[in-house]
Amino acid sequence: MRIIVQKYGGTSTRNRETRSMMYDNIIDVVNAKNKAVVVVSAMGRYDDPYATDTLLSVVRKKYLNDEEIDRLSSIGETLATLVIKSELASLGYRVASVSNEELGIMTDDSFTCASIEAAEGEAILKKLEEADIVIAPGFQGHNKEHVITTLGRGGSDLSAVAIGAAIGASEVEIYSDVDGIYTADPRIVPRAMRLDMVSYEEMLELSNNGAKVLNHRCVVLAAKTGIKIHCCSSFRHGKGTYVVGEEDMKDINKFAISGITGTQNEARFTLVGVEIKNNVAGNLFKKISEAGVNVNVYNQALTGGGHMDISIITQQEDIDTVLAVINNMKQELQPKRTIVRGNIGKVAVVGLGIRNRQGMFEKVYNTLENNNIHVEMASCSEINISCYIDRNDVNDAQVLLHEAFIENNEED
């Protein structure tokens, strides 16, 4: 029995017209003698009547605890499951639905953004013995006390991959309003090209650096379980982009670089003239972490005389929190001055080809500097070169780097 898991978001489930296109894709699976497990999101977006954000808007959230918020948030997916099951069954297909309990997704107790601890597929597989299609609610699971939890933004993608791994699915198809993964955001880079395949590792870097196509947690789980993801369009037939292990890439991408992406929500802190003593930098990082903030990039420069400059990059929204930590540690750090630079952006160049080619950072750096885009800080890994620049330059930087690495297709 070959099983295909399909996930549909709110733009697909929104109304009868969009759902009819969704049903065409599901029926194609059945007509090909396969079984379909369909993971669905709530119907539409705010202020569609049954969307999750609409449901949350009708209550006074400050008077509900997180468990109650999750109970309410899960209703949209549960309703979508039953609507879609009833409509497909009315077309003459053998369809079953599963409840939250039958879903088999066990999580921790982190309400509103739970982590999956285990996934079991027995209930779904049993229903597939009688039905050709099983409809499942996305975005949710339950903890060990069988209390409903939700998985946070992008949680339906994560649900689909977890279910796919649990039932031994051949692949997981993620349907959205785009037809795959592009070398850049086409709204910013008009000449962006759709990729046939991208590796888990590359997709993780793209997701973590601003690409919105896939939730990064679902990519981590897919890589861990070896589930193949197929990113497709809900509104257009045809092949999209496969996300697979590096061993399955088969040199299909002709570019050393798979993607250019960017963000515009970083901030830089520079502590000038900090005295080198008692691991003050390590203590600073510990306090920042305890305050719930991630340090994205760190640079330390020895300036002589037993002093150093410390620079860090965090998210823009963390400025006040980090400043409070620095101020609380002023006696320990004793910086000569503290410089805070908001409105920092980042442009990232991602690709497996970076690890095998010399001069890639030089090319990124000079492409930007030669076009009057100043690189304030940078970080590099085997497959990612990230440059921190003024946020107003991020879109232009993506266009320039896409032209240099992909449109010109120069093999270094």
From TrEMBL:
> EC annotation?
2.7.2.4
Leading EC class: transferase
Which transformation does this protein catalyse, written as a reaction? L-aspartate + ATP = 4-phospho-L-aspartate + ADP
Q: Which GO terms describe its cellular component?
A: cytosol
Give UniProt keywords alphabetically.
Amino-acid biosynthesis, ATP-binding, Diaminopimelate biosynthesis, Kinase, Lysine biosynthesis, Nucleotide-binding, Transferase
Residue ranges annotated as coiled coil are none
Q: Name one GO biological process term.
A: diaminopimelate biosynthetic process
The positions annotated for binding substrate are: E77
Q: Which domain of life is it from?
A: Bacteria
Q: Where would I find the ACT domain in this sequence? A: 349-412
- Residues bound to ATP are K7, Y8, G9, G10, Y182, R187, K212, V213
Pathway the protein contributes to:
Amino-acid biosynthesis; L-methionine biosynthesis via de novo pathway; L-homoserine from L-aspartate: step 1/3; Amino-acid biosynthesis; L-threonine biosynthesis; L-threonine from L-aspartate: step 1/5; Amino-acid biosynthesis; L-lysine biosynthesis via DAP pathway; (S)-tetrahydrodipicolinate from L-aspartate: step 1/4
GO molecular function (one): aspartate kinase activity
What this chain does, per the record?
Answer: Catalyzes the phosphorylation of the beta-carboxyl group of aspartic acid with ATP to yield 4-phospho-L-aspartate, which is involved in the branched biosynthetic pathway leading to the biosynthesis of amino acids threonine, isoleucine and methionine.
Sequence similarity: Belongs to the aspartokinase family.
Q: Which PANTHER family match?
A: ASPARTATE KINASE (PTHR21499), ASPARTOKINASE (PTHR21499:SF3)
State what protein this is by name. Aspartokinase
Species per Swiss-Prot/TrEMBL record: Sharpea porci
